Amino acid sequence: MILSSKVRLAGAGLVALSLAGCGVTPVAPNVDTPGMPNAEVALQKSMDDTAREMARIGAIEPSAAVASKPAVVAGELDRVVSMQWSGALDGAVRRLGETIGYRTAVTGNAPQAGVNVAVDPAPRRVYDILHGLGDQAGDAATVRVDEQHQLLEVIYHG
């Protein structure tokens, strides 16, 4: 009887041990199995790719700026002149008009304080001087060039 109880106890232990082995499945630390990607591994790969591309972008040197070509204008406006001026805008435009043989027209009401401009005596194209005068006039006036009718206009916005 003692033998049968030992066998019975050993059998019960063997059954319990085998059932315990079936109940616990090992969890792999890396779930990288076909068809089931590991989110952590995918995130690390994405971060590595991003870091590599950012390093590549950071190594790109900016291209050198190319100087823009001057605007193509009529021969009179392309002429290089030296003119010094400090005073009213319409006076400067009139003087440039006389220099190149263009008529000058002034429209609109000039502001009470007037629009004073200055022209550096360094030799420059007439077109560039007129462009500079328009920039100095700002919102107070517009300097317009009509090449077809050989006309320089100062249009005051006041």
UniProtKB/TrEMBL annotation:
Highest taxon in the source lineage: Bacteria
Residues annotated as signal peptide: 1-20
Keywords: Signal
Pfam families: DotD
InterPro entries xref list: DotD, DotD_sf
The keyword NAD is assigned to this record: no
Protein name: DotD protein
Organism: Roseiarcus fermentans
Source organism phylogeny: Bacteria, Pseudomonadati, Pseudomonadota, Alphaproteobacteria, Hyphomicrobiales
